[in-house]
Give the backbone structure.
Amino acid sequence: MNADELLMFGVEHKASDLYVQTGAVPTLRIDGQVRELKAPALTDKEVRELVHAMAPSGAPFDVDAAMSRGFDFSYAVGDRARFRCNLYSHLGTPGLVIRVIPTRPPSLESLHLPPVLSEIAHVRRGLTLMSGTTGSGKSTTLAGLIEVLNDSYHIKILTIEDPVEFVHASRKAFISHAEVGRDTPSFEHGLRQAMRQAPDVILVGELRDAETVRMALRAADTGHQVLSTVHSSNAAQTVERLLAMVPPEEMAIARQQLAGALVGVISQRLAMSTQGGRHAVVEVLRGDSVTTKYILEGKITDLADYIATGENKMQTFDMHAVELFRQGILTQEEALRVASNPDAVKFKMRAEGTSVKASPS
């Protein structure tokens, strides 16, 4: 099958990712599990042909140079499906990881996320951070936050991504998308240009270096609503990772900016639902006077204990996992798998005598 046929096969079987690699059988990830197709292993020539068929048009494309440094790009099959692609090198031969992106951005309700996330979006200022491991659904949840704003306010929204994933149709909001490598050379450059484009909301695909962090904090500090992602495993670590990107000589001002601008941190993990598919388990930190105090004083590790108080609708992964278990959405095994402290979660379940509710038929 050609590239489009393979991709649409993945879409039709509700795959989240497709794996294509020289010497391997094309493989799908469905509900978190990898499954090989009943097909022969792909040759180097076949994989290169797939890459050329999907790579951005324009200048001649050097597969070897691109795969050796890693290359991200987006691809669409007409208006039927969109994909985020990463080209990599495997023993000197090409491989592709292809993420399936729904053609319509999701709502927070369709993702079954806690209402507090909508409250965070409606704050309409400051910095909101999304964190989690690769494949935890960070971009999908951010898209849901953008949809909240798109449905609610007559504002200008700009997204800067590498590559662009969800394409939002303007409703109340006016939305522009900038793709790194095509519309702007870098996140940092895109952010600098954004300040001249009169946006109310700026979504930055990832905060990955000191200059991008510096620009994002400056934008949030000057009244813009900034949303972005950080690769980290929980909310407190997200704050720690962001500050770790800042040079020591700039730490004092960065702490002040972050303490004043932080609206919330949403960390996410995915678990298998008893009702089929995967369900998000989220940890939520809200920006308030206590959070501000801990950031200014460098007491980042104390944020985890503060989240556990449940103040202002905050929640830890463990609190959400227990609640989803109570509702019958997660099995005990899954709840413990995504928990930060499985022993404490198991003890809480036993102490409460929690039993699983019957799942809807």
About this structure: Residues 356-361 have pLDDT under 50 and may be disordered. The first strand starts at residue 17 and ends at 21. The chain has two domains: 3-101, 116-315.
